[in-house]
Amino acid sequence: MRKFVIDGPPGSGKTTLLFGQSDSEKQLPIPPKNLSELGFKCLKESAAQAYFELLKQNIEPMSNQKYWFQWIVEMERQKYLSANLKDAIYFFDRSFHHWIHFRQTLKIKLPDWYDEFNAGVRYNDPIFLFRPILSCDLTKASGDKGAHVFTEAERIESYQRTMEIYQNLNYKVIEVPIFSEDLFENTQKRIDFILENIV
Fold first, then answer.
1. CA of residue 142 relative to chain centroid, distance
2. Which CATH number is 38's domain given?
3. Fewest CB atoms within 10 A around its CB: which of 4, 70, 101, 197?
4. If you average pLDDT over residues 161-183, what whole number do you get?
């Protein structure tokens, strides 16, 4: 099997490319073509999944960040381990590396074995890093009153920090450009670009 990572800041088009549309794009009558529809095994990022699972339990994730991150990294660990079909090509929306690094910046203490597991994780080269689409108007998901809406400066900083994560781990990083302001055209050209670079 091969395991590729698509990473980048909020509002960079990762979810659209992997699954067709994000929560902020539900108004689209016809979602763009995506890697999941093309038959690739695509795995959603764990942060949002863990966030909404905690809300269902009446737990506020931003007020319980350590608990939230325990959920995130455990879900990411399970996804990495479960992606084991011999001839399959997997695409991950962010990675275990990403979340281990991010919780370090927030000084959240987790059991040491998570760092030990992280040292043994290896995705396939290249890592596909998406530039932020600064014209994208980020909005909170429906029914979510607590989520943080990222500023343009925060998204640019996130892009630079994410680049450093993978470079420091000696991955080959390919920056996926913005080909067009048109969502459909941009997504299709990005898909073509990615498939050309995994051959």
1. 20
2. 3.40.50.300
3. 197
4. 92
